[in-house]
Automatic annotation (TrEMBL):
One Pfam family, short name: UVB_sens_prot
Family: Belongs to the RUS1 family.
Domain of life: Eukaryota
Name used for this protein in its record: Protein root UVB sensitive/RUS domain-containing protein
Domain Protein root UVB sensitive/RUS: 120-337
Amino acid sequence: MQSFLHPHLPYPWTTIQEPQFKTQILIPPKTCLRIRTIATSLRTSIDYGYEPEESVSKELGRLPVAIQSSGCVSRYLWDGDSLQLVGVDGGSSSFSFDFQDGIRNLGRGCSLAIRNLLIPKKVGQNYMEYVKWKCLHRIFSSALQAMFRAIGIGYSRSLPSAAALNWVLKDGLGRLSRCIYTASLASTFDTNLKRVRFSTSVLFTLGIGVELLTPLFPKYFLLLASIANIAKQISLACVLATGSAVHRSFALADNLGEFSAKSQIQTVCFDNLGLLLAAFLNVLFKNNQRLQAGLPFIVYPIFSGIDLFGIYQELKHVHLQTLTKDRLEVILNTWVELGYVPSPAEVSKLEGIDLPWSKGKGPWPIRIGSLNPKDHFSKLSMMAMQSLSSAEYYFISMEIFYTRMPKRMHQRIIICLREGATTGNVIMGLLQACYIRKALHLNKSKWQKILEASDLSDSVLHEWFKLLEECKVRARDDLCILNEQMLGMGWTMKNILLSTREQNRYSFIDD
């Protein structure tokens, strides 16, 4: 421990008058009190050197403690009588003014102020990229809506059917559709967050396009305005429903309230920039009324494309730590093939936006749910159910499914979960299914011919159940270390979010 009050300590600055109090230091037995010079590991812009004693009446002694608050750094100083807190990042010991340093400090201060206004204190590494693309998306979306309002005002006299009743019907239909949408797709907001968020953003953009058509077709104002408002209300419901999950993925200190507040500030600031962009374009073409009237139709495809591109890039930087069936399947596939657990950022990159046409392209996809009685593997499924015991909470079988375009028959693995199945049971079953798929892929031609046969022989069934048992043993051996590595990578292991169909369970009846 360094003592700055010892009367015989050599100070590197001018000697000051000793304070009029006594200090008693208790030294434990067999302990050596070592007095060292003041630590100078903290580098600051203030340089305290020897100065003539007549230049200052009292000089300050630097203490090895600095405080950082709101982007500014201050250091504790001792003047012999009391402590002082002096800023060390702005040349407080000098009265000279450097213009370049002043501009630099002003710019740094403004940037810190803007950052403190828009960005929470503790965020994930990918949050700044997310905000950058959010800024692009909100600016062009706001500009597009502002230009629509301008054209709507210009054509207000050509909308004789825009009566108060029509507006009430339009808003009422929009809100009713919003309630129906959120009620029917409540679980989808968790299991397919990125896909739903992007698809509703496309719907919102199309709604703006329909709104642009209302001045051209005044007789169909109510129909077009209602369709547009329904699309916008659905998109708004999705943004509100998924906002908390997005914020939680960035919050490092459970500061969700701060994230929500900063998100609202960001939205307001970025939307105002969009309004300025729309106003600038209108002022730029104010001398050409014809061009100004058609400007929204010209910029609509450009701004819409930039808006959707910004949303797509924004969602790519949202790294969710919650587990869904698809996200867990990516993790387990990486574990089976490469032997390690990927991070949320790696899974987010592989997962993408998870659009419907990008799913199920590989051989033998995996589904969680209940058996379809019309499948072509009835004997296989029957034997799987007959072999169940009261200690098992899932069983695995095969089923047939058909693709629409082109219409082709495919096989996939199905996992049926029992009532009371835990998170560990789901991980175990999906891991076993991934090992089964790997084994099928290694002998693709053999199993393809077997599964395409109209009837399964006893030898085939025996080989299938032998494969099930081998993969189950491998999955059981990996489960413990897999769970540890997943927790170490930051995955939330408490629950696995499943869709409505994936939540179907069977009950075991012990007759």
